[in-house]
Amino acid sequence: MASVPRASLADLDIPPYLYKPLAEEDAVEGKFEINLVNILPGPKGAPLICEITTAQLLNTFDLIVGKPDYEALSYVWGTGGLSHEILRLRFEDRNRCMWIDQICINLADPLERGQQVSLMGVIYWYAQRVIIDLGEAAEQSDEAFDYAATLHDAASLESYYYTKESQLF
């Protein structure tokens, strides 16, 4: 098995990331900031290069013009430490803008962490897509997925009949 080449920041000629604290939520207008990670494209095995940007959202579920296009990653938190790899999330031919809590939240700042965690519902709501990693299978994983499939089928069936009834009137 070939090893993945490791590169240092000096090898890549990239300045180190300097953290910029997020603005506190504007309670009057309901605006808040989030960090987004832009995963730059590259071939498999190449060093992963990301850019961190700050975006502004509204703390409502109303649609807004000019909201950033991003995906969110939801996953099972481990036992601590930064151990998750994001290599599989990179596209080879285009950028991928994502909100990933361990990267986009300063977990060492209790104030920012608390504020961002309280806004996660809105953050996920605004995402174009939410990618979910449920972690390792457990004893009853198959039963849970079967139940989820049943719920999905029931919702699809209900939607089908609702649409058919709507066409009658």
UniProtKB/TrEMBL annotation:
Pfam family, one: HET
Residue intervals of the Heterokaryon incompatibility domain: 85-154
Alphabetized InterPro entries for the sequence: HET, HetReg/Transcr_Mod
Top-level taxon of the source organism: Eukaryota
UniProt name for this protein: Heterokaryon incompatibility domain-containing protein
